[in-house]
Amino acid sequence: MEEKLTLFKNRKRFGIEKNIDIIFKNTSLVLSSFVAIILLGIILVVFFQSFESFSRYGLKFLVTSQWNPVKDEYGAFTAIYGTLVTSFLSLLLTIPLGVGTAIFITEDFVPKVFREIIGSFVELLAAIPSVVLGLWAIFVMEPFLRAFFVFLHSFFGWIPLFSTEPAGRNSLLAILILVVMLLPIVTAIARDSLNQVPKKLRNAAYGIGASRWKTIFSVILPAALSGIMAGVLLALGRAMGETMAVTMIIGNSNVFSWSLLSPGYTISSMLANQFGEADGSQVSSLFYAAFVLMILSLVVNIFAQWLVKKFSLKY
Amino acid sequence: MNSLYYQKRLPRNIGDKFLTSLSVISALIAILPLIFLVTYILIKGGSQIAPELFTLEPNPPGDDLDAGGINPALIGTLIITSIASIIAIPVGVGGGIYLAEYSKGGAFSRFIRFGVNVLAGVPSIIAGVFIYALIVSTKILFGSMYSGFAGGMALSILMLPTVIKTTDEGLKLVPNELRYASLGVGASMYATILKVTLPSAFRSIATGVVLGIARAAGETAPLIFTALFSYYYITGFGDLFYEMGSLSVLIYNFALEPYDAQNKLAWAASFILVLSILSVNIFSRILAAFTEKTKRV
């Protein structure tokens, strides 16, 4: 009995070590809360900086397209329209291509080695900086597609989207470079969610006589839908916030036009262009635009996370 | 009787063939331009590489004769990315340790994990706007406005979510038996984390962190109005608090110049940037595949 007591006596930890343990834990706690502090800080700072412009224009800022630093009148409709149109249209083009490629990679059309090479190549492309894509778009894509845009205008000019004479940089080019940027994201996430669908579902479908594509459309895609949707939403958030490649190729014009063949603006390209040289109430208006962009991407992101949580695979 | 054999003409088989070819076509449409893009960047950029590029300052645009080199931008990228890493790695690893080792899945840790995902989705230019409002316009850093330091801080905001996530996930993969064994022989919690769990998760954390650094090195949007750009050599420690060039901003500025010499410099800079980012990616991929193989044995 006494021996046991001395044993317990020796198991007492030194005071210093105990303190270090507590300090260590609390430091890591503080460090992890930095994320929340930064996030709140970003929201608050951008909001308060935009306050002057917000109180002056209110929600009218969102629907008027005057952007005139000389007269000191600001409305961001052109940029907001540009942001929404470029991101949604680029997504519309990316989804079939990306999901089609993901199906190609996950089915056994070609030997596994090729599929793995294609898969990792697509992932590598996501690592290319967007400013380099912008450089490429200016010097290779724009000259290459010029003839195509002229063709598009002469045949479909009656559609408002193609109603202006193409001249140099325009919104459609921005949409196309966004497709190049989003494709790796959508493909990688769609591939991962397709891979996560259990094999037995596929075998069951084959077993009752479904053809390959019947299986894909009625069993595999529905099972992977939530993952693919979340990936698509993440890509949408990325497209809205994408700055460099778009700024370099969209033409940066604040004159509103429905046409995709005329130069346009997005919120992020407006920030990239004007922030450095702005002063006075223009700065506040730019912060207001930044706040709009932040809210847009926050909503998309939070919705994506909710979707993943709500509909994650339950097999 | 025939129904056991594959019949080409059946509508379902024709439909299948059609959809299969659609999928192949979409894969081709997706991949061919991408292959073209990468090879073009590597060939066009690679042909501009010359030794004096690495030692000279870029000449201000205007004189069309000689564009000079990219030395300040190259060094600037290294410095700015290092500042970002020095800030983001300790904070991120520490935060990840809390999430993986201490938190018990309560409201706080769920909120932080959610915040990490949201922060990862914040557009990179917003990070620049934030640092501009916080540091550049207030001149809080010894009265300097645009500075390499501010640029590094903006980049660190973008790196932070990646570092926390990889630390959190890397630590969660460490088997609990290791922790029990360490705690069981009387080690305290911090000793267990520092001497047992962190070292055994080191490789996966390091891979994720290196990929995050590579990603940050190519970011432009947070730098264009925090670090701005500079044409001059970086000579000393004090230059941290002045405008600082970087490869990515150099590409952006010089791509929009009407002069051929500057454009060529932009191509050369993108060659260096893309090559280093791709090689970091490929190297870490090979390393990951290699460790997976050794684990299986």
Describe this entry's structure for a reader.
- The complex is a heterodimer of chains A (315) and B (297).
- Chain A is 74% helix and 1% strand.
- Chain A has 315 residues and is an all-alpha fold.
- Chain A has one domain: MetI-like fold.
- Chain A has a two-stranded antiparallel ribbon with strand order 1-2.
- In chain A, helix 7 crosses helix 9.
- The radius of gyration of chain A is 26 Å and the shape is flat.
- In chain A, 45% of the residues are buried.
- Chain B is an all-alpha fold and 297 residues long.
- Chain B has two domains: 46 residues; 245 residues, MetI-like fold (Orthogonal Bundle), CATH 1.10.3720.
- Chain B is built from ten helices and no strands.
- In chain B, helix 6 runs antiparallel to helix 7 and helix 9 packs antiparallel against helix 10.
- The radius of gyration of chain B is 25 Å and the shape is flat.
- The mean pLDDT of chain B is 87.
- The chains are: A mainly alpha (315), B mainly alpha (297).
- The interface between A and B is large, with 89 and 92 residues.
